[in-house]
Design a protein that fits this description.
Helices cover 41% and strands 14% of the residues. The protein is of the alpha/beta class. It has a six-stranded mixed β-sheet, with helices on both faces. A four-stranded mixed β-sheet has the order 4-6-8-9. The longest helix has 16 residues. The two termini are 29 Å apart. The relative contact order is 0.11. The N terminus is likely disordered.
Length: 292
């Protein structure tokens, strides 16, 4: 059981396991309501297996519904790798038996695999109703880049780097990469990263707007603890609704975005935290948000 470092005068606290962790994916929830998801295959560059992917999707979905969880941190074990993409050596589920003479890879099989795999994982991060922080502790490559970019806030160690590795393998970018990059940094910058596949140091990723903050490697976890604690003390429903508005605004027109903004404001004022915020303002005191 991990012991978190003290941050800003706060006492260090022990993480309390919520559900049993698996060897390759650690899942812990702090008393403050911060869920820590750690990819735990450092010997394999924290490459994601299909089993890990499915558990990540399930845990992010559960985090949305669990009132005890008010923020999520996603990181990798070790100091070298955040996530180096999908594990290509991962055993695949046996395919449906082929008819005699049929091609080994029927038309549509690749599209189904991507839609049912990497794209579902990225969607799970984007659709999680709690704020998700990526604490990028090392190399993020392929789907590992997109896993970080899909998070609401991205912290990176100064030793971290991002690599759109697909072109090096003769592959087209997948896992929501084109969608995320074009919206985060614009089409021209996105094409440069996708076309060349060069290493992108954390400092340059910050300058381009892909990373919120770069910190010394030794300070990454403490910074993530501090940011997650602030989020966990906030109005959880309002944060989730704000996340939804921002994510959806990139795809809709102005009238749709404004209509949805008005609707979620209506929804938020049915929450206890919404009323608490207004009362605290009127009473000139600091609000105490409970997460519902």
């Amino acid at each position: 059981m991990a012991l978190l470092p003290a941050v800003s005068g706060r006492k260090a606290v022990r993480l309390v396991p919520d559900q049993p962790s698996t060897d390759d994916l650690l899942w812990e929830v702090s008393p403050e309501g911060v869920a820590w998801l750690t990819l735990n295959r450092p010997q394999a560059g924290n490459a994601i297996t299909s089993g890990q992917r499915e558990r990540l999707i399930a845990l992010l979905d559960e985090a949305s519904a669990d009132q005890r969880i008010r923020a999520v941190v996603l990181t990798g074990a070790g100091q070298r790798h955040f996530c180096t993409g999908a594990d290509l050596s991962d055993p695949k589920v046996p395919a449906t038996p082929l008819r005699e003479g049929a091609p080994e890879r029927p038309a549509g099989s690749v599209a189904r695999a991507i839609a049912g795999g990497a794209q579902r994982l990225i969607a799970a991060v984007l659709d999680c109703e709690k704020p998700v922080i990526a604490a990028v502790n090392g190399t993020a490559a392929g789907i590992g880049c997109h896993l970080a970019y899909a998070c609401d806030l991205v912290l990176a160690a100064d030793s971290a780097k991002f690599i759109e590795v697909f072109v090096r393998r003769g592959l087209v970018v997948d896992g929501g990469g084109a969608y995320l990059l074009a919206r985060l940094i614009g089409p021209q910058r996105a094409k440069e990263l996708v076309f060349f596949g060069d290493d992108l140091p954390a400092a340059e990723a910050y300058r381009m707007g892909l990373v919120n903050r770069v910190v010394a490697a030794g300070e990454l976890r403490a910074t993530a603890v501090g940011w997650a604690a602030r989020l966990a003390a906030g109005p959880t429903v309002a944060l989730g609704l704000g996340k939804r508005l921002i994510n959806r605004s990139m795809d809709g027109d102005r009238s749709t975005s404004l209509a949805e903004e008005a609707m979620v404001a209506e929804i938020n004022m049915t929450t206890a935290d919404g009323h608490e915020g207004v009362r605290a303002f009127v009473e000139r005191r600091k609000p105490v948000f409970r997460g519902w």
